[in-house]
Amino acid sequence: MLQAAVIGAGPYGLSVAAHLRNQQVRCRVFGIPMLMWRRHMPEGMLVKSSGFATNLSAPGDGYSLERHCAEYAHPYAASGLRIPRETMVEYGLEFQRRHAGPVEEVQVVAVTRQPGGFRLDLETGEQVEAAKLVVASGLARFANIPGNLAALSGELLTHSSAHHDLMAFANRSVVVVGGGQSALESAALLHEAGARVTIVARRPIAWFDAENPRRWDRILRPEAALGPGWRARFWSDAPGVVHGMPQWLRLRTAYSTFGPGGSDWLRQRVDRVIPTVTGAIAAARTHGNEVRLAVAPDGELVADHVIAATGYLPDIRRIPFLAPILPSITCCGDSDRGMRVPVLNKYFESSVPGLHFVGYLSAASFGPAMRFVYGCDFAARRIVPSLIPDEAARPGGRWYSMSLNSQARQHPSY
Fold it and tell me: How far, in Å, are 21, 29, 36, 265, 321 from residue 107 at the CA level?
């Protein structure tokens, strides 16, 4: 029996695997490395977070994004410069090679409990036994399509995560629904690819403040991993403290804090460049090969295609391989929105002993930092000691450090 298995090979899964490998834990990792970044984000996209906040986690000095960019001669700055998606993918794959080790690109179809741990049924027919299981499921399965667009056919409506190459929309009319970073950057890339684009957002576009290098402003609004200001600093650096907050408050803030808006560096590519309609979509219907959207308070838009850049909805029920044990997992959520997330203890462990969740589904327990790459370090360092059978082998034991991301501490603002 394996000591541990990890399902998912994005930044969180690879970071956990790197720490397990360092402790010589018998572990297997299943998934496609950096899948979300490789197949569900558009070419030409820039990473939203600053360089100092975009590191995968490995023991010791690890392998930071800064080091990767230096070795491969890519432009890099701790802040003020955004790296391309392609560089992030390259960094993740090199991190895997150096620290996380082999990843098996095979699908897990079912997980069941058994004495001493879990049994994983693979699509190949193989059955794998593991004492501990870490679920690091990516965002793609949680793509959210609002009900007011549900009447449209799949050929005329897609989620923003379905597109890797937006050049296919050249010379076509496209409505992008949403007012967040994904919507605005998708719209910019579509426009630059030759599409005729219109943005529909429920509220006027909110643009985040530009980074300010002046010393006094840095004191009043210090730069943090999740953005400028003391509020962002708290959510960035205190996930252990967040876990001690009332569950209802954690759930309310996990997925709404740092809500829809666009980065200042994107503004010149969108504002007054791409038509924007503010209002709610009252109805959506097809007319031949076209989409017709009724936008309240009045008006109608006609387009060849609609891209819903409407975010993600955390719902553990969308993970099919968990179906056999789902009734045993204590969850919380918002029934009106269809949210369902596992309740986790301070070691990211669910009510099923030995079953841990990291990444997006853990944000309701540890705060919005778990929605970003930055949260990898805290998650990996907190969870891995609890996966090691020998207490003496756990660095810091169960009271593993709640300190800041080791790479972030190198940033001048800390």
Answer: 21, 11, 15, 38, 9
